[in-house]
């Protein structure tokens, strides 16, 4: 597609459940990023992929969070044992030229009840 | 995580007014970016600044990269209704692919 696609757009889950959030980057973009945006805040970095490998995962808050990009295109952010504090908008972005050329998706709004 | 300081936090203006907002950091950045975010959407890049002291325009928008590399400002001239939204600054350092975002400035236009 023309832009970065994220599914689902909204996800409500119960505390303790497992969730997967999907990101389809722009075709040909080798770099893919995940950010988390809490209410009233700016996005915060989670993880960055260059191709299939996680080049920088320093923003993942703890070991309940994991992300994969097995074929260098689609990425999945996985959250185990969800907590209410995980509620936020999870944004994905892709680029060909690093941080300057980011295109963001519309995000997945995750609500943990 | 670290967030850059943006001010003001919110602005209420009338259509046609000029707007000025700024962003400060305790750390040096090599690139400053300004984004706009509409409700339910991801941030969209408005202006990118690559050199200390650089002044760049994009239509009614003008942004400057501070000499100390620790600050930036964004001006919007003759505001129109579609300027409503949240504006974020973001900084990037060499060799580092992750953006550090500001706390945002919410712009509202009063009818």
Cα-to-Cα separation, first versus last residue of chain A: 33 Å
In the predicted model, the low-confidence regions of chain A spanning at least 5 consecutive residues are none
Rg of Cα set of chain A: 13 Å
Radius of gyration from the alpha-carbon trace of chain B, in angstroms: 13 Å
Range of strand content of chain A: over 45%
Shape of chain B: globular
Instruction: Tell me, rounded to a whole number, the average pLDDT of chain A.
Output: 94
Number of helices of chain B: 0
Note the main sheet of chain B.
6 strands, mixed
Written as H for each helix and E for each strand, in order along the chain, the element string of chain B is: EEEEEEEEEEE
Average pLDDT for all residues of chain B: 94
What low-confidence regions of chain B span 5 or more consecutive residues with pLDDT below 50? none
Number of helices of chain A: 0
Strand-pairing-aware structural class of chain B: mainly beta
Give the strand tally of chain B: 11
**Oligomeric assembly:** heterodimer
The most extensive interface, with participating residues per chain, is: A-B, 26 and 25 residues
Largest sheet properties of chain A: 7 strands, mixed
Question: How would you sum up this structure, described in words?
Answer:
The complex is a heterodimer of chains A (113) and B (111). The mean pLDDT of chain A is 94. By secondary structure, chain A is mostly beta strands. Chain A is 0% helix and 49% strand. In chain A, a hairpin with a 7-residue loop joins strand 9 (88-95) and strand 10. In chain A, the strands form two sheets. In chain A, strands 2, 4, 5, 6, 9, 10 and 11 form a seven-stranded mixed beta sheet that branches. In chain A, strands 1-3-8-7 form a four-stranded antiparallel beta sheet, with no helix packed on it. The radius of gyration of chain A is 13 Å and the shape is globular. Helices cover 0% and strands 52% of the residues of chain B. Chain B has strands spanning 5-7, 10-14, 19-24, 31-37, 44-49, 55-58, 61-65, 71-76, 85-92, 100-101, 105-110. In chain B, a hairpin with a 6-residue loop joins strand 4 and strand 5. Chains A and B meet through strand 4 and strand 5 of A and strand 5, strand 9 and strand 10 of B.
């Amino acid at each position: 597609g023309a832009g970065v696609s994220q599914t689902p757009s909204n996800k409500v889950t119960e505390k303790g459940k497992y969730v997967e959030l999907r990101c389809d980057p722009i075709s040909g973009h080798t770099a893919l990023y995940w950010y988390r945006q809490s209410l009233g805040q700016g996005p915060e970095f989670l993880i960055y992929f260059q191709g299939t490998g996680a080049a920088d995962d320093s923003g993942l808050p703890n070991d309940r969070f994991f992300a994969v990009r097995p074929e260098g295109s689609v990425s999945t952010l996985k959250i185990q044992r969800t907590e209410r504090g995980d509620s936020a908008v999870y944004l994905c972005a892709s680029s060909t030229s690093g941080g300057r050329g980011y295109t963001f998706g519309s995000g997945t709004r995750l609500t943990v009840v | 995580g670290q967030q850059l300081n943006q001010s003001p936090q919110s602005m209420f203006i009338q259509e046609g007014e000029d707007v000025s907002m700024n962003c400060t950091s305790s750390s040096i950045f090599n690139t400053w970016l300004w984004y706009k975010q509409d409700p339910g959407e991801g941030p969209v890049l408005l202006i990118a600044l690559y050199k200390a002291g650089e002044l760049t325009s994009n239509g009614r928008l003008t942004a400057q990269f501070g000499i100390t590399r620790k600050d930036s400002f964004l001006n919007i001239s003759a505001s129109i209704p579609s300027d409503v939204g949240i504006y974020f600054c973001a900084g990037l350092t060499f060799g580092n692919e992750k953006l550090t975002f500001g706390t945002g400035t919410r712009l509202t236009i009063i009818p």
